[in-house]
Design a protein that fits this description.
Layout (H helix, E strand, L loop, with lengths): L1 H24 L3 E12 H6 L3 E11 L5 E13 L5 E15 L7 E17 L3 E20 L2 E12 L6 E13 L2
Antiparallel strand pairs: 1-2, 1-8, 2-3, 3-4, 4-5, 5-6, 6-7, 7-8
């Protein structure tokens, strides 16, 4: 799993270095962000609020208000009442639909499918990890600022882990650049 995430990040880095000029002219946007991770369900009863960070690339589909976003992320929470941490690392491909904004603000919704590694370390008891498919959906707002944009978004995420699922809500703020 770690190799897959590193490979996705390497591809993103190469795309950034090699073709930023031509890709941004075609409407491709690059972004980085971070924020809070709110555990939900069984995960929420075991862990406290944590952090998340990620990077991604958005590819427009022609002139339609629809785009494909490919991203990688890392999240971490600490257990409630016992020592240890939960870590989630993975990547997701999503469809993004942008609405016509009022003024310069552009609201959008997104939904996607990804592959994640969930690792749980419990002090004194060892660790457990597994890689599984996950899905998510949510929405956000994009605020253009010259050649860059500030964005804020919230999503519901679900990873099908053994014995149930790991559900959480990342609330992210970030900066994107390129494209339109």
């Amino acid at each position: 799993m770690k190799r897959m995430v590193l490979a996705v990040l390497a591809v993103l880095a190469v795309v950034c270095l090699v073709g930023v000029g031509s890709l941004t002219a075609q409407g491709v946007r690059f972004g980085v962000g971070g924020g809070l991770l709110l555990p939900m369900g069984d995960y929420g009863t075991a862990d406290k609020m944590g952090f998340t960070a990620g990077a991604g690339v958005v590819f427009p589909i022609g002139t339609a208000p629809v785009a494909v976003r490919v991203e990688g992320s890392y999240s971490q929470t600490s257990h409630d009442g016992i020592g240890g941490k939960s870590k989630i690392m993975g990547g997701m491909a999503s469809l993004v639909y942008s609405f016509s904004g009022a003024g310069t603000v552009t609201p959008y919704v997104l939904a996607g499918l990804g592959y994640y590694n969930v690792k749980v370390d419990v002090t004194g008891f060892g660790s457990f990890d597994e890689s599984k498919v996950g899905f998510g959906g949510g929405g956000g707002l994009r605020f253009p600022m010259g050649s860059a944009s500030l964005f804020v978004e919230a999503r519901y995420m679900n990873i099908s882990t053994t014995g149930g699922s790991t559900t959480f809500m990342p609330i992210i703020a970030g900066l994107s650049f390129g494209g339109k």
